[in-house]
Design brief:
It contains no helices and 11 strands. With 124 residues, the protein is mainly β. It is globular and about 40 Å long. Strands 2, 4, 5, 6, 9, 10 and 11 form a 7-stranded mixed β-sheet that branches. It has a 4-stranded antiparallel β-sheet with strand order 1-3-8-7, with no helix packed on it.
């Protein structure tokens, strides 16, 4: 069982940056792949980024590629999402999720554990 708590969201102007953190408690974090997803108002949840258990491989949604970076620190049981060059369309609730299989995936069904989410609002 893993519990996930996101932090770092807030209000930022277009072009600005934010870094989201996701702190995990419980056993197994270092063996889990981790992902970030988001849900914008009136839209379905969508994949943002994922990272393998070791941090050696990542993948991103096309909409954030080159602007967002996912990373992890297994010693701190934390995964990060660095978001640069933010756009108003990045406004959403951002969720981190854990995949016990350890393989990065863009499919939400592959993730067993989810955080409560953190709000990111980008003003124009």
């Amino acid at each position: 069982q893993v519990q996930l708590v996101e932090s770092g969201g807030g209000l930022v102007q277009a072009g600005g940056s934010l870094r989201l953190s996701c702190a995990a408690s419980g056993r197994g974090f270092s063996t889990y792949a981790m992902g970030w997803f988001r849900r914008a108002p009136g839209k379905e949840r969508e994949f943002v980024a994922a990272i393998t258990w070791s941090g050696s491989s990542t993948n991103y949604a096309d909409s954030v590629k080159g602007r967002f970076t996912i990373s992890r620190d297994n010693a701190k049981n934390t995964v990060y999402l660095q978001m640069n060059s933010l756009k108003p369309e990045d406004t959403a609730v951002y969720y981190c999720a854990a995949n016990p299989r350890g393989v990065r995936s863009s499919y939400s069904a592959d993730y067993r554990y989810w955080g409560q989410g953190t709000q990111v609002t980008v003003s124009s």
